[in-house]
Structures
1.
Amino acid sequence: MSRVVAVYSEKGGVGKSALAGGLVAAARAQGLPVAAGDLDPRATFSAELGISPDEAPAFTMNDLLALDPEGASGLASDAFTPASDDWPGVRVIAAERALANRESDNTAVGLEFRLRLALNGALTHDEVAILDLPPRAGGKLVTAALVAATHVVIPATLDEDGRIGAAEALATIKLVKDLGMNPSLNVVGIVPSIVPGGRNSLKTAIGDFLSETYGELYRPDLAIPRHSIRQQTRFACVPITSATGPESKALQAAYGKILDATGTTA
C-alpha cells in the first residue's frame, strides 16, 4: 500500500509546510516518486513546488473535492500536474484560494471521503504521497486529508503555539479515528520543529511537558533544527537537497529520518 503522509498542526507558523516540502525532497533523494497534495488554500506548499497561485492548473484540489463522488475513484490521476523542473519526479494536486469555499459547501455530500476515493488506484506501489493540511481545527479539508492518509506527522515548535497546535491536532485525529472514518491512521508522532540551538529554558520546559504528556508520541529523536537555509530554499522554490553545507545536510538528515519513520510505524 502506498504511503500517504499528512502533515498537520492546528497552529500556523510551526513549520508545517516546510516539513511537507522537506519530506518531498527526502523521498526524491531516496529515489521514490512523489505525489504531493495541497489542502491549504494559502497554497504555500504548491508554490514551493513551483506552481504559482496566480497560475493555478485547470484541475486543482478545489475542483477535485467539488466533483460528485460518483465515479471519483482514481480521479486524482487527472488532477496531478508536474512540479517545476527543480522537482523532477514530483506531481502535484495544487491548491488555490477558492479551495476555502469547500469548508462551507453543503452541497458536496461526502466531501471528506473524496480525496481517498480519488487517490485509490492513482498512486504507484512505491510512490509516497505528502499532504499539507491547513492549520485549523478540524473542518472538511482537514478531515478529507486525514481520511485519505495512512500516516500523520505533527510538527511542533517548542513554544506555546507548538504545544497548543499539537494538542488540538491530536484531538481532531482521535475524533476521525473514533468515528470510524480512518481507524487505521498511524500517528508517527509529535516532531519538534524549527528547534533553536543552544540552551533555552522555554524549549526545555515545552519539550519536557510534551514528553510527560504524550510519552512515546513525542519524538525528540526526529527533531528538525532551525537553519536559515530552509527559508532560502523555500523562497527559491527548490528542494533542500539542492543546497550544500552542514546546515543543509543536517536538515536533509532530519527529513530523511522522519520519512523513514513513516515506513516503520505499526
Note: The beta strands are 3-7, 34-38, 81-82, 90-93, 128-132, 151-157, 186-193.
2.
Amino acid sequence: MDSNEIKSLIQSYLNAYNSFDVDGMLLHLHKDIEFRNILNGVINVETKGIEQFRQLAEQSKKIFSHRLQTINNYSIIDDKVEVEINYEGTLATDLPNGLKAGEKLILKGKSVFKFKDKKFLLIEDYS
C-alpha cells in the first residue's frame, strides 16, 4: 500500500467512527483484528477478533452523544502507521469514574495501525 492508500483507509475508518457507523468501521478491519486502548501506559481495553471489536464499538456508541477524532500528523514506519490524534467527545451517560452526561472530553493522543491484506490487523490507541 502506498501512503495515499494508507491515509485514505485511516480517514475512512475515522469518518465511520465519528459518525457512529460500526459497520463502516468493520469494513476496514481484518478478521483477526487486535485492538488495545492504552491509558497512561496501561492497557485498559483489549479485543481480539472482529466480533469482540464489534461488541466494543456497539457499547462505545452508547457512551457518547458526539465524538470526533481529527488527524494532526502521520508517520509511516516500516509496517505500521502512527497517527497523532485530537479527540473530543460529549458524554451521553454518567460514567463510573464520576464524569457526567453532557461533559466534554478533550484529549490528545496517538493511534498506531498495522495492516494485513489492505485491512487493519492492529489498532492501538494511546492517551
Note: The helical segments are 3-18, 22-26, 50-61.
3.
Amino acid sequence: MTNVGVGEIIYDLRKKIQQIQFDLDQLGEPTKNIPEMIESANLLRSNEYLLKSDEKKTELIGAYGQYSKELEKLLSIVFDIQKDLKEILKEQSTLISNPSKKPKPSKKLLKPKKKLAKPKKK
C-alpha cells in the first residue's frame, strides 16, 4: 500500500533544491557597470549573469514542481492510512458497544458436559 522510496525521493529533491538555491546565491548580485569598459562589454557581462541566473531559477522551479508532486503522493498515502484506521476503529467500536455480537466459539472447541447420574430410588 505504501511506496517505500517516497521518503528518499523527497529527501533527494529537497537536497537538490538546497543545492540550486546555494548555486543561485553564489551568483550574487548583478555586476555594476565598470566605467572604464565600453557599453557593449558591460551589456555582455550583464547578459551573462542574467542567463546563469535564469537557468538556475528554471532548475529551481522544476525541482519544486517535482518536490510538490512527491509530497502530494505522500499525502495521499497518509490519507489512505487514515481512512483505513478510521474503518478499523469503527469496527472495533461496534464490537465493544454490541457485546452480544461477539463471535461464538466453535462447537468443536466446547467440551461436552458430563451428565450426572441420578440417584437410584430404593
Note: The helical segments are 6-27, 39-97.
